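Morning. Coffee machine broken again, so started the prediction first thing and wrote up yesterday's gels while waiting. Chain of 330 residues, entered below exactly as on the submission form.
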Amino acid sequence: MEKKTRIVGLGVSFPERHRLMLEKQGCEVLQYPDAGSFEEALREAQSAEAVCFSTLWQQHLPQDFLPRLKKCRILAVPAGASVDPEEAASYGISVATCQRYSVPALAEYAFSLLLSLARKIACSPSLHPGPALAAQARAMALGRGVELRGKTLGLVRYGSFGPRIARLGSALGMNVLAPKWKAPRLFSRFFRHRFTSFVDLDSLLASSDMILSILPPRGRIVFDMDAFTQMKPGCLFVRVGHWGVDESALQRALQKGMIAGAALEVPLGVEQGPLAGLPNVQLYPTLPFWASNTEESELRFGGECANNLAAFLAGKPTDLSVKAARPGKE
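Came back before lunch.
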């Protein structure tokens, strides 16, 4: 009887049709979506040829996780996962990065923060006006927001989710700008990128009424005091993720009135940073990659993992960020 290829999913649920696809390809599929099975999942992963893990489970994996994977040939991981490519290659483990599953969820989440900031939704319950006209008038003034229609939205970074965000912005009547660090080809601009104008970063900062930052982990600081100084006076600033912003510089820009307001995700447990307590700041303490935390995104991630693993095992790898081979393997 032919030996089956073992696949272990740590914190991953494969959609039924993807699980059946892997089984038809001769795979034994073990999936552990629940935190209570963490230790059992780690034990099973040590004898698996293919492994994938979710963003949440990655935060709790032991430091010697890769050396434990004695038989693993392919690791499927979410975008932004902190897998050392050189270490993975040294153990003969190829890495496939799942890039597309989170795009719809992230785009919707980014706009929810933008809308909350622009319309001061998070501030509304704290106003508590009394019955008098003067008190209610003050509350209305404090809670008065701005509309998105007719505003210019600057996206920093564009990435795979940029076209989706631009489409949402266009539907709300916004003009959308993105930096031309890597502008798409002309033909593509008429179709996938037709809702976006590509400009240099300085022009984007100076022209945008609202700026949305979705910078990757371990990247450089893009938004420092120089960047805030270049922004259009009264600009609104939104950060999805925990990276790319000098928060002390943002604090000074807000206090000086250079920036009208900001909404930021911050890591759990560090809510008392330099921005805490500012009246024109909305802070959202979250786990990493909270923006993609939806039922649909979870299923898409399982499906994308399954597709990447199946392609690799069939000898037609896709989305590889690390290509390696176990000793004795081609």
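Residues 5-101+295-322 form a domain with the Rossmann fold fold (CATH 3.40.50.720). Going to sketch it on the whiteboard this afternoon.
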